[in-house]
From TrEMBL:
InterPro entries: RNaseH_sf (IPR036397), Transposase-MT_Hybrid (IPR052709), Transposase_1 (IPR001888). GO terms for molecular function: nucleic acid binding. PANTHER family: MARINER MOS1 TRANSPOSASE-LIKE PROTEIN (PTHR46060:SF1). This is Transposase. It comes from Elysia marginata. Transmembrane segments: none annotated.
Length: 283
């Protein structure tokens, strides 16, 4: 309006300062706007600027990066930048700031990838066990016996300071054999119940666990330990939990458990109980 009244730019700038205070534009901006309005500019919005935008981060690029990550979680930032024609830094910014602070982690190794039917069978077995332990149910925690096999390596590494020796300054460093490279290992079969370790069986050297060894040496020890710990309770009340290793699911093992009256609700590809049996070595 002031431009149409042919007011000078200085007066217009003073009027804006009076009305807006510190929020008013500078004198140079007021002069530029007065010149543009006198040349016929009508809209107050800025004209479109040529060239690419200041930042490539928008809804389209974010959605494209998210789609590529969903299709291939192992994809690298460099490959994402090449695929989407974006810089490495832009892709990294999108992943860390616009995709809920995503980070790249190492996947955890598992022994089996379960099918839908196997997952349903696990749910069924878990539900059956939970029903047994309900209030006034037929089972108690003292009836559970669980076990697993694990390898233990053992060797003694002397302190590194014992390898220090005086040598001539002109010679090189001597070498010494590290004893850890000649380690030995043994396999232990550990069973435990609510009170702690029940049986710890050490497999003799140069032998392997077979169904015969498992029945004659391991299960017999478990039976004796249960009878010694709870002589008035029959082994038929015992819930026997172990994994699905070859000796554990053999016909001889199944027959022996049936003769002992122990129930063994083990689903297919049952997980090992190493996270449970490892606790017994902390006592």
């Amino acid at each position: 309006m002031l431009c149409k009244l042919s007011e000078p730019a200085k007066l217009i700038h003073e009027t804006l300062q009076t009305a807006c205070g510190d929020c008013a534009c500078s004198y140079q901006t007021a002069c530029r706007l007065v010149k543009e309005f006198k040349e016929g500019k009508e809209p107050l919005s800025d004209c479109p600027h040529p060239g690419r935008p200041k930042s490539c981060v928008n809804k389209q690029t974010i959605a494209s990066i998210k789609k590529d990550i969903d299709e291939d979680p192992h994809i690298s930032v460099r490959k994402l930048s090449v695929t989407n024609c974006l810089s490495y830094g832009t892709v990294h910014t999108i992943i860390t700031e616009y995709l809920h602070n995503m980070i790249k982690v190492f996947a955890r190794w598992i022994p089996h990838l379960l099918t839908v039917d196997q997952k349903r069978e696990r749910v069924r077995c878990a539900t059956e066990l939970l029903n047994m332990f309900e209030h006034h149910g037929p089972k108690r925690l003292c009836h559970i016996v669980t076990g697993d096999e694990t390898w233990f390596s053992f060797f003694i590494i002397p302190p590194k300071r014992l390898n220090r020796m005086w040598v001539d300054g002109q010679g090189g460093r001597p070498v010494v054999l590290r004893p850890g490279f000649q380690s030995r290992k043994r396999i232990f079969t550990v069973f435990l119940n609510y009170s702690g370790p029940l049986v710890v069986d050490t497999l003799p050297q140069d032998t392997t666990i077979t169904a015969t060894y498992y029945v004659q040496n391991v299960l017999s020890q478990v039976k004796s330990a249960i009878n010694e710990q709870r002589p008035k309770v029959s082994t038929s009340r015992t819930l026997f939990l172990h994994d699905n290793a070859g000796p554990n699911k053999s016909r001889a093992t199944t027959q022996s458990l049936r003769e002992l009256g122990m129930s063994c609700p083990t689903p297919p590809t049952a997980p090992t109980w190493h996270h449970v049996t490892s606790c017994c070595f902390r006592f």
